[in-house]
Amino acid sequence: xxxxxxxxxxxxxxxxARVGSLNVMFYRTLRALFPPRYDREELFRQLHRIxxxxxxxxxxxxxxxGVIMVLQSMTYVRKTGATGFVGAGAGLAVxxxxxxxxxxxxxxxxxxxxxxxxxxxxxISEQVEALRAxxxxxxxxxxxPRFIAIVTSLVLLTVxxxxxxxxxxxxxxxxxxxxxxxxxxxxxxxxDLLDDFVVGLxxxxxxxGVISTVSSNYGLTVTGGAQGxxxxxxxxxxxxxxxxxxxxxxxxxxxxxx
Amino acid sequence: xxxxxxxxQMLSLSLWALVRMRLGGxxxxxxxxxxxxxxxxxxxxxxxxxxxxxxxxLASTMEAVLPEYSTLGAATLQGLTRxxxxxxxxxxxxxxxGTGMAAEIGSMQVSDxxxxxxxxxxxPVELLVLPRLxxxxxxxLGLAAVGTTIAFFSGMCVAWLGFSILPDTFMSxxxxxxxxxxxxxxxxxxxxFTVPLVSCACGFLATGGSxxxxxxTTRAVVLSSFIVIVEDALITYIGEVLS
Amino acid sequence: xxxxxxxxxxxxxxxxxxxxxxxxxxxxVSLDLYPGEVVGLIGPGGSGKTQLIRCxxxxxxxxxxxxxxxxxxxxxxxxxxxxxxxxxxxxxFQNFALFDYLDVWNNVAFPLLHARGMRxxxxxxxxxxxxxxxxxxxxxxxxxxxxxxxxxxxxAIARVMAAAPEIAVxxxxxxxxxxxxxxxxxxxxxxxxxxxxxxxxxxxxxxxxLLPITSRVVAVxxxxxxxxxxxxxxxxxxxxxxxxxxxxxxxxxxxxDLDDPPARSGRSSPGDAAAAVLGKSxxxx
Lengths: 258, 243, 285
Prior knowledge:
The structure holds 3 protein chains of 3 kinds. Chain B is mainly α.
């Protein structure tokens, strides 16, 4: 019983310490954004690497999410006979919920994990120390451009992904279920999609913040060689997934209160 | 390409081991316990949030399409059983367990430990991958079940407090049929099998120091999450065709 | 060229060519190594020593060339035969390759338990004596992460010796070791070859510890064998670049041609050692 409690307490303290250092990282990143004095070339390079290169995986994920949601809502339609649900159910779910959160999850694997590994390697090879020795703030130099690039890319990718998700749904209707895609479109148009689209983008921006903060924090606190980098990446994706769903819940809840 | 070859090799080896029943039961149980234990808290907390979000979203859709909530609970339970429970558990498994395996095996690979095993006539796949492969399949099933339950109950709280739907109205098994349950179980088993397969393959293909481990881990989480989504679409479609 | 070993060669390669990503690492290497020999493998960093070793112990398959181990062509070996072959080979990896989830005892016992199929109590004696020989008795229960770099290297050496392989390969066995221990390790390698009649292949930059224990030296330069012959004839029979390399390494000078700082580590007194070694190996002008 005692070692169990001790283990639990240690875990609890560790996670509290991690939450604290995440907040500090977020605050320092925000402060490093103003005044905007970062390397423009570095920013564009990051935007290309982070945004453009993630496009294929995001498009594929979104298409499949659209397909899955249409197939899933079909079973509900068959039970209740509410045909409008094929378009509306799938469309709303993709725009406001599954699009942003699944794209966010894929993006956190593709980009967040990568950033953590990259920063972790820089810490291990003492490049970050070297920056500090040259009186360059690693947050401003390394983290701030990534933060901007990640948030911007994720929002833009979500716009693209939403579109792909809806297209994927139409494709599933047409080819897999033999429903006229116009029925799907009509169901889609019945509901007010703009609200859900906007809330989806808000979520994407928040997820971007979570991904950037968590990955920078885990990356810059790596200790202990190749194994340490592996552990940091693992911790980073786990915390990001948790953070994404907590942020998702908070935004959904706030949205419903309004 | 090399990835496909590695996955193929591991797949054939593991099927061969399954045929010959050469799996240490004790070691397997330990792995099941460890995998499950390590991910339980994470999966539990995340699934609780997913359940709450799901009910909000589903309620808003129902409000827009059929302006009443009477089927909210039944639809939630059905959606969780056949779709959201397994896929989210699979994605969380890829995140928690998949990256862990890729990191572990990747760092063994770049520090020549895998080669040292080969020289000692130990097949690294047999020693490192097989126990994890079957253990994760079992653990995945358990996690999906627990996660779905937690998500359902957290969703019930939201329905009660946010939409004034009483728990006994919400807790309705009206929509769930055996087919849904079978589909959920199939998905969880398949995800639990492919996530470690892909992640371990990424780990074995790591080259070049700590950077290589980082790359392998990143690749593992992206590929295994993506494959979970692809498989989910496939299985859902097959289920649709069969019904 | 034939060393002082006897009988059939245990390792025999002809025309070995190996590339990594299209870049040639080994170009046409041919070698015969005999049981009971202590062979030194020398050459500047990046010249292909480690890749040659990996090819010899069947961890890397070369692009071209024939490899015979124990008189049998390896390329044709079936899976089971390859296993059999590997149980007779031991390699101390350059970066140790200790299993970090196992303690020292289990690391050293790993080849015994898995390759030889011994029971733990059978292996215990061999493990303890191997650890004692490298001066690490008493650290059986420690994890590799609790050891210093030099101690890990010695555990890796003990792992090879405990299994008593017929081909024992040591990649950098003394880098980073203190002078007392590196002298001890080198003597240990020599005794191992003479008592067990196994082939011992040692790759290192520490030439003034290496040369006294070897009967034969193979120098690899730019992926080719630049010199292969008795140690005593090294300074007379070898091509210019090998002689320059050896002379610079022995005198401890920083030769601008050598991109290899580790060569100077772990040395006690370069001048004296160089004189002693060179006196033995025939002298140099």
